[in-house]
Structure formats: C-alpha cells, structure tokens
Amino acid sequence: MATQPKPAGPLPKLRPENYLSREFARGENEHLWGKVWLVAGREEELKGVGDYLTFNVANESIVVARGKDGLVAYHNVCPHRGRRLADGCGRAQQFRCKYHGWTFNLEGKNTQVLDRHDWEGALDDERLDLWPVRVDTWGGFVWICMDMEGESLAEYLETIPQYLDPFELQEMRFRWKVELHLQVNWKVALEAFMEGYHVAATHPQLIQVAGNDYTQSYAQGKHAHFGYWKDVQPLGTPSPRLATKGFEDPREGVIEFFRQIEEDLNAIQTDRDYEAAKRIREVLPQGTDAMTAMVTAIELGRQAAIEDGTQYPEALTFEAMAQAGSDWHIFPNCVTLPYFDGALWYRARPDHRDPENPDKCIYEIWSLKRYGPGKEPKVETRIITDPTTESVGLILDQDIANMTEVQAGMKSSKFRYARPNPVQEMEVINFHQTLERYVLGQSTGGI
Amino acid sequence: MPTVTFIDPDGAAAQVDVRRGETVMRAARAAGIEGIIGECGGFMNCLTCHCYVTAGEGGQVPAPSAAEADLLDCLAERRANSRLTCQIVGEDGLEGAVFTLPSWQ
Ligand code: FES
Ligand code: FES
Ligand SMILES: [Fe+2]
Questions:
Q1: I need a labelling partner for A238 at 20 to 30 A (CA). Which of A50, A133, A154, A303 fits?
Q2: pLDDT for A7
Q3: pLDDT for the residue A446
Q4: Where is the Rieske domain (chain A) (predicted)?
Q5: Is the distance from the beta carbon of residue B75 to the nearest atom of ligand 2 less than 6 Å?
C-alpha cells in the first residue's frame, strides 16, 4: 500500500501590526496589562516591613510593599491631585505625597490631609485611601494584578507550577540584573528567547557542543514551553547538523559546553557547575562516553552546590527536569530558562516613558542562582541604553543584535506576515493567539 | 543649653547640644546625626525623625500631643517611648535625655 503524502497543515501567520502599530500598542495598554498577573519584582527585594518597590507598565504605576501582615500593593498615585507617591524602591514607614503632604499608612489608609478643615466635612464621605491591587507570590516572584476580580494567580499560571515548582525558583537569589532600553517592540525582544530554532544560525559556536539543537514546542494554555525531546544527544556533542564528530575526548566537549555557558552567558548553569564539570578530567578515565561525561559533570555540580550550603531541590528528578523542557513563556511578558542551580528570567514591557510607542521597550534580564545561606551578593541593576556599545556576553549580544533588525525589517512593504515554524516556534504562535484574544477581543484566526 | 545623647543602631553614642527653643530634630540634623532625616521640616508629616526617648537627670520629657500620638501608631517600629523629635523642644528638662535611633529610618 502506497503511503499517503501527509496533508499540509495550515500555515501559521503572525500580523506585523502586533509589533508595529500604535493602535495595537494602545489596545495592549487598555486591554492587556490591567487584566493579567504580572511580575512586579522578587520577594528578596521586600524582606522587611516597609520595604517597597515600584513597577511601571503602560500608563500605570504600582507600588508593592511589605506591610505588617504581608505584601500589599496599590496604584502609585495620590488621590489629591494625582502625583505619583513612591519612586524606585526603598524602605518607608508610610507613603507620603511630596506635593502637599497627604499621607497613607502601609495598609493604604489615608492618615493625614493637611488643613482638612478647609473641606468643611466634604471629604468625610470621599474615598481617600489608596486604590488596592491584588498581590501574590510564586517562585520567589511578587506578582500583581490590577483587575480586582477574575482568576487567582494559581489559576492564571495554569500548568506552570506543576512543571516548574520542582526547580524551587523561590530558593534562588539575584546573581546579576541588566535592564536594556531598546528601540524595538517588547514582543520582538521577548520572542528572541521563545524558541530554540534560532540557535544554529544565531549562535553557531554553541551548536558545536550543545548536543542536538532541534527543539519541539507546545502550548500550555496561555503559556508555552519548548525543549529537546527528540533524538536527544548529550551536552558536549556537536549538533547533527554538523559533519564534525566533535571532541576526540568527549570529556572535553562537556567541559567546553559548561565553559561557554559560564563565560558567554553567565546564567542558567553556574560558575559552580563549570568548576565542578572540569573535575570530570580527574574522576573519569580518558575515552569515557559523552553521556557518562555529561551525567557525571551534572552530578559533580549537584555535589558542589550541596557542599556550598545550598540544598538540592528534592523534587527535581531527571524526569521532572526533562518534562519541564528548557524554556517557558509565561504570558504575557516573561520567559524563563530554569536549571537546578540557577535560572534565567526575562521580563519585557513597553517603555513606560513613551507607552504608546511600539518601537520602544524595557527589557530586563535576571540571572538567578542558588546560594548557600548568606552568600548571595548585593546586586545593582546595570542599565544599558545602547547595547551596540556595551556587551552583556557573547550569547545575549548575538540575540540582541537580531532585535533591531527584526523591528526594522518587518516595516518592509513586502513583509505582510511572519511565517513561524509550527514545530519549534509554538511559543510565539500561541503568544499571539492569546494576545489577540485580549487585545482584539477574539483571535483573528488567520490573515 | 541642654545636652542630649543619640545612640545609633550599632550602639555608638554622640552628644548634641539643643539650643533652648530649637527642636531636637533640627539640632540633630545640624549635628549630622544620621538617621534623623526630618524630610518635612517638622510639621509632623514625614515621620522620619522618629526616636526612642529616655529622660535624663533633667527630669521629664513632655508627653506627646494627641496628634503626635496618633501618627506614632503608623510606625512599623513603634514602642512605648517612641517620639517624633521634631515635636520636642530644647528646655532644661531635656538635660541628659537619651535618643535611641530605630534600626532604620
Ligand atoms: S497631589 Fe498628593 S498631596 Fe497633593
Ligand atoms: S520632621 Fe517630619 S515628622 Fe518630624
Ligand atoms: Fe539565543
């Protein structure tokens, strides 16, 4: 019996307007950011009572603080004449408006109106307290939702906790933080990290030692992930796209992989893992196969982490790690790449200083790591306004170099729609389908 | 002119002279006491002049007004002897008083 040719699937298409039009950006500001749960920061930034941070997105500013009974969040605006109350982050006993001195306690209650008698009682029935915002935590992140009704954070995250809880992101702390001010749409920046399809062309040095770089991606409700589940090859071996057999001694390939991640990315796997990986030269004989070399390097990293005073996450079996895959898009504006020892976390949003401009965004990169008790560094955010003159490491520089070219290229009169890969770029496809439901009211279902 | 003592959260002490009629907050700021910020200049608005006060040999430190007592309730680190130093004025009774700074301000 002759095999039937497989019928062609529908061609997934993405609308360039989603990245380029002011109207769509306004639509996001109106229908997206106020309706979803968003990462406002890390719990480690709000350790003591009175610690606060501000989070600006679109036209909104939110202040999150640790009150006497836990985290609180409010719209960061004074009800008197609208001055923003708090700026940046810090520690305060109360929120005090710098304009006319109205004050609010950490519970958001108005505590002082200067010369209140001038109103002759007219303020008595007026609501003068700060407008509350929902706040919750997961994975060590502080999440806010401006919509006071609707899904809880746990409901919103859908299957994410089931896959990512074993990584214990809440046990990690900042290793470094970068904030990039980019002349591209926030989604262009984020999508540079939402598929593994670009790795061969964008990071040619990496595929010499990163195993099989062929990825598969799947939607998980509003969110999505990708991983390496097919024809898996150990780290340290070259991509099957290449003719090379790789390192003659597979141990050296594994060490080279950890070196690249440490020196060219400085995230996900850690300096501790790289140091531990080098020890496979001592503990394994020459000629050890690549799989044994990789598994041993990972195990030595695990032992090094435990010796350094961090607990290995108990629930994170090899199976759990494999099921999670490598990369998660957390709708709408975060992406994470978790490992047992560290994680990368990206957060994108329109530039709040020009929120309707689709060509501008704030892009943050957070490298997280498990530290032994008290060993976490004090981390300042490095702000980069021109990434062409300041490096964030080879791998990220390569990713960032694509962004402005994509933003400019999509403006071509010939570029009517993007044609994402249905197997490897499902995170991007699912992202736009979900986004359009929020912004346009329903999926446009094709072009 | 009464002399008072400020003790910072690490236990280090500093003597400050408070001119008669001047507030303890302003005297502390002039003396460069870290931890007395006094952002509002003294109209009981900013709560950044908070201290724990113990009277010295001079006698009694006058009790807080009702308005001050209300505001002290907002403080995360409120204790029974919490005071806003912008509400305490230099007079003989202040001699030897000890002002302990809260762990953060
Ligand atoms: S605007 Fe805040 S007190 Fe006037
Ligand atoms: S100086 Fe502002 S309350 Fe005392
Ligand atoms: Fe990349």
A1: A303
A2: 76
A3: 44
A4: 37-144
A5: no
**Distinct helix (H) and strand (E) counts, chain B:** 2, 5
Q: How far is CA B55 from CA B21, B90, B103, in A?
A: 18, 13, 20
Does residue A14 have its Cβ closer than 6 Å to ligand 1? no
Q: How far apart are the first and last CA of chain A?
A: 38
DSSP code string of A355-390: TT-TT-EEEEEEEEEE--TT-PPP-PEEEES-TTTS
Are residues A91 and B104, on separate chains, in Cβ contact within 8 Å? yes
B40 touches chain A (CB under 8 A): yes
Given a cut of 60, whether residue A442 has pLDDT beyond it is: no
pTM for the complete prediction?
0.94
- The token pair that represents A23 in the structure block: 């109207």
Q: Nearest residue on chain B to A99, judged by CA atoms? A: B40
A416 lines ligand 1 (CB under 6 A): no
The domains found in chain A, sorted by start residue, are: 35-157 (2.102.10.10)
Rounded mean pLDDT of A418-445?
90
Rounded (5°) CA angle A59-A60-A63: 155
B74 lies in a domain? Answer: no
Rounded distance between C-alpha atoms, residue A207 and residue B88, angstroms? 70
Dihedral over Cα of A346, A342, A210, A330: its sign: negative
Interface with chain B: mutation pick from A78, A85, A94, highest number of B CBs within 10 Å: A94
Chain B residue nearest residue A111, CA to CA: B71
Q: How many domains does chain B have?
A: 1
Predicted confidence at residue A349, as pLDDT, reads 98
β-pairing, A361-370 vs A172-182, is antiparallel
Instruction: Examine the pLDDT at A145 and tell me if it is beyond 50.
Output: yes
Structure tokens at B56: 């010295």
How confident is the model at residue A438, as a pLDDT? 96
CB atoms within 10 A of CB A363: 26
B16 domain-assigned: yes
List strand residue ranges (DSSP E) for A76-140, in order. Answer: 89-91, 94-96, 103-105, 110-112, 134-138
A21-73 pLDDT, tens digit each: 999 999 999 999 999 999 999 999 999 999 999 999 999 999 999 999 999 99
Query: What's the A328 CA to ligand 3 centre distance in angstroms?
Result: 14
Q: To which H or E segment does residue A276 belong?
A: helix A271-278
Q: What percent of chain B has pLDDT over 70?
A: 100
**CATH code where residue B90 lies:** 3.10.20.30
Does residue B89 sit within a domain? yes
**Tokens 């791998």 appear where?**
A395
The secondary element (H helix, E strand) that includes residue B6 is strand B3-7
Residue B63 lies in domain: 3-67+80-100
Dump pLDDT digits (tens) for A410-425.
999 999 999 999 999 9
Residue B38 within any structural domain of the chain = yes
As beta bridge partners, residue B84 has B50
Give the gyration radius of chain B's Cα atoms.
12
Cis peptide before A332 (omega within 30 of 0): yes
A441 burial via Cβ count (<10 Å: 0-12, 13-18, 19+): exposed
